[in-house]
Amino acid sequence: MPCLAQDLVRALLLKDAGDRLGCGAGGSAAVKAHPFLAAVDWDALTAGCMCSRLDVHGTRADGWPSGSWEGTLKGAHHERRAP
Questions:
Q1: Alpha-carbon distances, residue 3 vs 9, 30, 54 (angstroms)
Q2: Which one of 25, 30, 49, 79 is most buried, by most CB atoms within 10 A?
Q3: The whole model's pTM is what?
Q4: Cβ–Cβ under 8 Å, residues 21 and 30
Q5: What is the mean pLDDT of the chain?
Q6: Rounded to an integer, what distance in angstroms lies between the CA atom of residue 21 and that of residue 10?
Q7: Contact at 8 Å (CB) between 80 and 54?
Q8: Domain ranges in the chain?
Q9: Which of 45, 52, 48 is nearest to 31 (CA)?
């Protein structure tokens, strides 16, 4: 797992809620501002226009089988990649 991802997970899982990312004065804005999430277009996500990185029709974008993803992402916007 990339270092920035590890940092985000650790910050979200701190036992003391006062120290946990997103629970302090910064609220959800602090989570959104984390460097691991820098590439997220929050406006597009809120509007429901952000494409999923999952290919729900066979394999995920990272090459692993999709398993039971079909049906769990109904209504999600996704882009199909050419085979």
A1: 10, 18, 22
A2: 30
A3: 0.59
A4: yes
A5: 76
A6: 9
A7: no
A8: 3-40, 41-83
A9: 45
Residue with tokens 């066979």: 58
Q: What Rg do the C-alpha atoms of the chain give, in angstroms?
A: 16
| DSSP label at residue 36 | G
Helix and strand numbers, DSSP H then E, in the chain: 3, 0
List, in order, residues 6 or more apart from 13 with CB less than 8 Å away. Answer: 20
Task: Estimate to the nearest angstrom the gap between the alpha carbon of 66 and the chain centroid.
Answer: 17
AA letter at 78: H
Quote the DSSP letter at residue 29: H
